[in-house]
Amino acid sequence: VIEDAIGGVDASPGDSERAVEEMKDAGAAFAAADEVAEAKAQRR
Description:
Layout: H1 15-25, H2 33-43
């Protein structure tokens, strides 16, 4: 998940934060966009 490229919709207060925690608990990997771009550039 590119964390600085997502935004949640809080239908109820705290929904976005809970969704992120659920993704982390399920094993999702999180990174910032610049980290992803740098890693891709290093592979070239």
